[in-house]
Amino acid sequence: MGLNSTPSAQRVHIGIFGKRNAGKSSIINALTGQSLAIVSDVPGTTTDPVLKAMELLPLGPVVMIDTPGLDDEGGLGQLRIQKAYQILNKTDIALLVIDASVGMTKEDSAILEKIQQKGIPYIVVRNKADLSVQSAAAGPAAESIEVSARTGQNIHELKERIARLVPQEDMTLKLVGDLLHPQDVVVLVVPIDSAAPKGRLILPQQQTIRDILEAGAVSVVTRETELKSTLASLGKKPRMVITDSQAFKKVSAETPEDILLTSFSILFARYKGNLFSTVQGARKLNSLRDADKVLISEGCTHHRQCGDIGTEKLPRWIRNFTGKELKFVFTSGTEFPEDLSPYSLVIHCGGCMLNEREMKYRLGCARDQEVPMTNYGIAIAYMNGILERALKPFPEFAVKVPDRGRGDNMPV
């Protein structure tokens, strides 16, 4: 996979923050050497966060995020400022751009305090140094730099500083490769979903196949309708079967008990470090009551179609499982409520399109507000009474996890 095709969730997210006309868009253009962001002397040109996936040397693949001005005005301006603050939840490195001739303002100080509270590595970029007779102080020298987007002054040095802030990749972190040996056979069950991109596998499937290949193992991809014949035709017993969560019940019934079984979404919960908490959250399904609100949240945006898992299948399955009249609320993309108190349970997708920081933020919101949170695959496995089996591939779950799901109530 080339740098330009690296999934956004695996790229370093660099958030650019500051007041209107501090030069945020100009800094992005100077860093990239391209006219990616619209530059204008008119305050408020950037009205919504703009994300651009690209390669930034010497870092490699990144996502640059241009945000609205922190001093925007009016009711709509306040909503834009709120959007800028929300971007912090997915920001790996923050650049706070200030006008060097003006110095740090109350708006700059407020977001800098929030950046520090969240533990986000940051640089205060004192832009327009070429227009400033004497730039105002803006934090410790180790955390700030004086630049000019117009003349290119210190732009190279800024790139080097950003590169030094990039979190070191944990090379031991794998989707599934650490559970495999060379020449192991892994069967991937991939239903042909009408909501999936035509002619392509969805991102979790692509990334899992790549991880299997890097482990020196062999992947065999089949539909749920051909699983039984596929297993019978293999020359050796597969190490593991990984299924799309929608087919969990059927795949479990047709996969012999001596073959490990899990789902793509459970793999991603482990990969992003939230498997244990989402397993605990699934137990809330047993105690939901009439009129309880359930938030179903997806990290990506796509056109809703008939049979959509998030808005149609999951609500139907949950109603069948609980026997309760529940109220469902749906969000997608960056829309994730800060106040989760109205909800009795949050059920999230696998989060393949969200970076680790944003996924941890969402989990943290639920934990801090004591709202149980689980994900699609874990909830489906739990309701089918097969969660314990789906966790057997993972050494960290060697201790038996009680599985109280009542699968008889679940349709395939």
Provide a short characterization of the protein structure.
With 412 residues, the chain is of the alpha/beta class. The chain has helices spanning 24-32, 74-87, 106-117, 155-165, 203-214, 227-233, 248-254, 264-271, 275-282, 309-322, 356-368, 376-383, 387-390; strands spanning 12-18, 50-56, 60-66, 93-99, 122-127, 144-146, 185-189, 218-222, 240-243, 260-263, 293-298, 327-332, 345-348, 373-375.
Q: Which terms summarize this structure?
A:
412 residues; alpha/beta; Rossmann fold; six-stranded mixed sheet; four-stranded parallel sheet; 13 helices; 14 strands; 31% helix; disordered C terminus
CATH A-level architecture of the largest domain: 3-Layer(aba) Sandwich
Order of strands across the biggest sheet? 2-3-1-4-5-6
State the low-pLDDT regions, or none: 37-46, 407-412
CATH top-level class of the largest domain = Alpha Beta
Rounded to the nearest angstrom, the distance between the terminal CA atoms is 35 Å
Number of beta strands: 14
CATH topology heading of the largest domain: Rossmann fold
- Helical content stands at 25-40%
Question: How much β-strand is present in the residues?
Answer: 15-25%
How would you sum up the major sheet?
6 strands, mixed
Number of domains: 2
CA-based shape: globular
Alpha-carbon Rg, integer: 24 Å
Label the structural class. Answer: alpha/beta
List the total number of helices: 13
Order of helices and strands: EHEEHEHEEHEHEHEHEHHEHEEHEHH
Mean of residue pLDDT values: 83
Please give a structural write-up:
The chain has about 400 residues and is of the alpha/beta class. The chain folds into 2 domains: about 5-165, P-loop containing nucleotide triphosphate hydrolases (Rossmann fold); about 175-410, Rossmann fold, CATH 3.40.50. The protein is about 30% helix and about 20% strand. The protein has 13 helices and 14 strands. The strands form 3 sheets. Strands 2-3-1-4-5-6 form a 6-stranded mixed beta sheet, with helices on both faces. Strands 8-7-9-10 form a 4-stranded parallel beta sheet, sandwiched between helices. Strand 4 (about 95-100), helix 3 (about 105-115) and strand 5 form a beta-alpha-beta unit. The longest helix has 14 residues, at about 75-85. The radius of gyration is 24 Å and the shape is globular. The model is unreliable at about 35-45 and about 405-410 (pLDDT under 50).
